[in-house]
């Protein structure tokens, strides 16, 4: 079975029209998005057709990250908008329960406690969602959000461990003049890894499961720098310190890397037992690669073509690792 651990909701325009309505009236009349069953079915069926075209059996779908809008003003808009996205995911899953599973967002806003998201987190469990999508920069480039290693986040980690839900770390929008949201993704994924490894997060929450998007940002590519700093006596390191590449394996990583040599580096750096198949398809990678004739995000043939991976490695990447990280998938079996 081929399980895509990183994909996003394909929704009718009615969902995004609802956000416009929220912004227009300031959230005083939140209501619900006007999405007909027929319109939603058309989007879901279209996505299933895309999955079939590349051999994907099951997708874990979450809100489009750059639409998460954790920094939306006034902040009271964030909760109805988040609920609307999660509800649309739940409806999509109900249309194709053997093809989709939900990973939901939380209505977290800048400078408010993470406990503000607990009500929606509990609702995700009731809806049968298998994971939570976490934006590590709630200010979306307009302020300083505590990094994921900060104790600000610990009440959320405790609650997630209690619910046995994994985290999918994925940055959202970016309103900085210095970078686009796509560039911001890489920055925030890298900061997430480094800040969590500098902290006692995994000591205090040893069963917390964290999947980092897009192959871990820049960290696998820059690993030599972090390896050296951990051991450098002039920078506070010690020769007997845990090797950085060992600590890195506390995370899980998806395969949303559109350059095969970069994907090969990820496998050889963290090991195939820490990598989950993911494509984010349809998304920014759904453009034809002139070198292959396939879309950049058609990654199954790339992984199948790596001769250094065994059949057991591929099976782990395509299915077993995903089921380990997202145990809520246990009720969903393979297709005949």
**Percent helix among the residues?**
40-55%
What is the CA–CA distance across the termini?
Answer: 10 Å
Q: Strand percentage, roughly? A: 5-15%
Main sheet attributes: strand count, strand direction, barrel closure: 8 strands, parallel
Low-confidence stretches at least 5 residues in length (pLDDT < 50)? Answer: none
CATH superfamily, called what? Metal-dependent hydrolases
Per CATH, the class reads: Alpha Beta
List the secondary-structure elements in sequence, H or E: EHHEHEHEHEHHEHHEHEHH
Shape: globular
Topology, number of strands: 8
Q: Kindly provide the radius of gyration, computed on alpha-carbon positions and rounded to a whole number of angstroms.
A: 19 Å
Quickly give the CATH architecture: Alpha-Beta Barrel
Mean pLDDT: 94
- Estimate nothing, just give the exact number of structural domains: 1
Using the coordinates shown, work out and report the CATH topology: TIM Barrel
């Amino acid at each position: 079975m081929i399980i895509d651990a990183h994909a996003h909701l394909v929704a009718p325009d009615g969902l995004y029209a609802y956000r416009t309505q929220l912004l227009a009236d300031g959230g005083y009349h939140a209501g619900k998005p006007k999405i007909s069953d027929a319109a939603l079915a058309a989007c879901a069926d279209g996505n299933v057709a895309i999955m079939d075209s590349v051999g994907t059996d099951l997708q874990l779908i979450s809100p489009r990250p750059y639409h998460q809008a954790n920094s939306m003003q006034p902040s009271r808009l964030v909760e109805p908008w988040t609920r609307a996205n999660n509800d649309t995911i739940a409806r999509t899953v109900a249309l194709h329960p053997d093809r989709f599973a939900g990973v939901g967002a939380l209505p977290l806003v800048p400078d408010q406690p993470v406990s503000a998201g607990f009500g929606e987190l509990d609702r995700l469990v009731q809806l049968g969602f298998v994971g939570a999508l976490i934006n590590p920069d709630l200010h979306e480039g307009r302020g300083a959000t505590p990094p994921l290693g900060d104790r600000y986040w610990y009440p959320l980690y405790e609650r997630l461990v209690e619910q046995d839900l994994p985290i999918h770390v994925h940055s959202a929008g970016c309103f900085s003049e210095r970078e686009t949201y796509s560039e911001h993704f890489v920055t925030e994924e890298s900061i997430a890894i480094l800040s969590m490894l500098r902290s006692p997060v995994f000591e205090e929450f040893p069963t917390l499961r964290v999947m980092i998007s897009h192959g871990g940002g820049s960290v696998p590519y820059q690993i030599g720098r972090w390896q050296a700093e951990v051991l450098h006596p002039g920078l506070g390191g010690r020769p007997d310190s845990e090797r950085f590449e060992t600590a890195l394996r506390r995370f899980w990583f998806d395969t949303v890397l559109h350059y095969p040599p970069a994907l090969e580096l990820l496998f050889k750096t963290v090991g195939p037992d820490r990598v989950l198949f993911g494509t984010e398809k349809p998304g920014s990678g759904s453009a034809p690669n002139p070198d292959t004739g396939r879309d950049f995000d058609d990654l199954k043939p790339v992984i199948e073509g790596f001769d250094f991976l065994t059949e057991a490695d591929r099976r782990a990447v395509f299915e077993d690792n995903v089921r380990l990280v997202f145990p809520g998938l246990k009720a969903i079996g393979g297709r005949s």
